[in-house]
Design brief:
Blueprint lengths: L5 E2 L3 H6 L7 H4 L19 E2 L4 E4 L2 E7 L1 E3 L6 E9 L4 E8 L6 E6 L20 E2 L8 E5 L2 E7 L1 E9 L13 E13 L2 E14 L5 E2 L3 H10 L2 E11 L2 E5 L10 E7 L11 E5 L2 E5 L15 E8 L9 E9 L4 H15 L6 H14 L4 H31 L13 H18 L7 H12 L3 H15 L7 H9 L3 H24 L13 H27 L2 H19 L4 H16 L14 E2 L2 H9 L4 E6 L4 H11 L2 H9 L3 E6 L5 H9 L7 E5 L6 E3 L5 H16 L3
Parallel strand pairs: 2-14, 16-22, 23-25, 24-25
Antiparallel strand pairs: 1-14, 3-4, 4-6, 5-15, 6-12, 7-11, 8-13, 9-12, 10-11, 13-14, 16-17, 17-20, 18-21, 19-20, 21-22, 24-26, 26-27
Length: about 725
Amino acid sequence: MADSRIYISTTRERRRFALGQVTLRFVLPFIASVSAPTFASPAGEVVLGLGESTRQANSVGQVLLEHNVLQPGVDSQIGLKLRLDPEWHTYWSNPGDSGAAPRFEVRVVGRGVELAQNTQTEVSPGEIVFDPIQFPTPTRIDLPPLTSFAYEGEVMFTRKLRWPRTSSNLGEALKALNVEVEAEWLVCRKECIPARQTWRFEWPVGEQAVPGLRQAEFQLNAERLPKSWSVSRWKWEGRELQLLGVPQSQGQFSEVVDFFPSAESGLSSARPEISRDGDSVRVRFAEDSTSAAGPAQTDFWGLVVVRTPNNASGAVEGFELRGLPQGLTWWRALLFAWAGGLLLNLMPCVLPVISLKMMSLGKLAQQSQREVTHHVLAYTLGVLSCMWVLGVVLAVFRSTGESLGWGFQMQSPGFVIAMFAIFLLMCWALLGRWELGGRWMGWGEGLTQGSSARASYFTGLLAVIVASPCTAPLMAPAMGFALAAPISMMFLGLTALGVGLATPYLLLVLAPSLLRLWPKPGAWMNRLKVLMAMGLGVTALWLIWILSTLWTPLAAALVGAAGVLMLLAMEFRRIRWGALAIALGVLIFAARLPQTSAGPTDEFWQNFSSQTVQRARANGQPVFINYTATWCLTCQVNDRVVFRDADTRRWIQERGVVMLKADWTKSDAEITASLKSFGRAGVPLYVFYPPGGEAKLLPEILTPALFRSEVESALTPSSSGP
């Protein structure tokens, strides 16, 4: 390939610097053309094979593979490695004031080089996706008045191959992939030289992944890739960009070295002033270096570079920051959290526990105001205590880099089993079937009928535990904001939510006359106890159903059987120890059963993945994402009322909407990150992408008419044209 030398583009230069302000001695080395450098394919281009390198533009380029043999279902990386001559550099994703980012295209050009005879495979080239380019942490190259974000020496850009979820059993069917790599890069000193090369090769596929000889280079390169900081929000004040909610775990560094904005942000490449204040990073730009309007992008991301105490040699680490613009003020978030907690009292998941408190209201009406206050405050303290414990757990996981959402505990089979046991025992106690002696009877009576402040406290704890799978109106944006906020504000948000949940009972302290409206104790309470026991029994069965989706139906049935055996042990003294032994054996056997990971069984839905969303949007298709979970009652109600409605399904199919289900029943890092990108911490969440349009968030509670109206209003602007 011929070396056709060109000068650095000045598209951005002329936008930010008036020609009268830049002297000839600065302009001359950089100005060559009006547009950015283009990479025209030269005539007679030579296509290389795997392992072959090209020397162009004062650099050597080569394609590397993490695995010599692929295994279906096991992700692998492909890399473009560049070795640059001394004093020459190439560019980051945002090249800065001049230059151009490299292009590294990878595609599968055929179903496979060879398929086993008479073997059918559902994998097609379009289903094998390569993640976006991973860029190592760059350095800043200042040639005043221009600044570039670039690499010197050696650099490797990588992309990860991801298989479709249905590909795990294709080791014998798929023999190899035909892969084509097209790469373009710009190498500069003062002048710049473009380079372009194509590689084509076969990537073998087998039953077992075989690491490549250059795998160590991928591991070394991984250390240069930016770590992830999940920022909750950003806001722009004057010339200062404030990144809020940076995890405290990344605070062990001695110096903030630099900040690199993304190309989409529209922010200046000039070196800003950077400081850290608790859970926030402040980036202050010079007065004349950027627009007062702030970042142009909606979903902000950039790179903070720090020097840690362990890097005595002066090495640095990059941390990628992501966040949405701050849409809620703190006072509005706290107000929404309080209102969401108040509305939680009406959600179906909380009603079984709230009913227990209702049982005690008649007795409270006969007590003194002081005793009523003690009960109400004990209940409120139970609610707040559980909220604070949840906050501590969330803070601990955040400090380790993990991200949890609202209702995370329902993703644990052990927690669901514990809840099943509690509700089963409460149901049995309400029916008056505990016959194990005075101590057990007293505990059960106090727990279920609220005859002590301790029982009120326990009821408050239980109310929060069973409320955690629910998301009430107004609560979703507030909790998404709070759970991703600095630790202190997260606890304030959880406290506001707890106060909202306890507000109906706090009113009894402020207005004790309300108790007089409650009927006095009588025979009706016995009938109510039976109804409440039935409600708790149904809740226990619901928990067994949830367990069947988290574990296996057989394991869930065995846990249910163990629960029944334990009730028999409590009921019949003669068989107590035998029943308990059998129950314990059943639980041990169930614990040994493997967990399943079943996807949607309804053909109406496709499994969610970010690659599926990107592919559908690239094809111009409307996309609807249903973030749901088995343990979310609101989700299940919406599913039955809206998404199983035959007319609604026909209406959706007529419009060609791609329906994706993001099932968060089990912990899923991709779904958690996707929820967080919309400022949400739990389910349900409904997102609709019209063709070529921005995401639209639908209400948490839907009806068929409301769903159609929301989707139609989003489709109308994109469908209207000349």
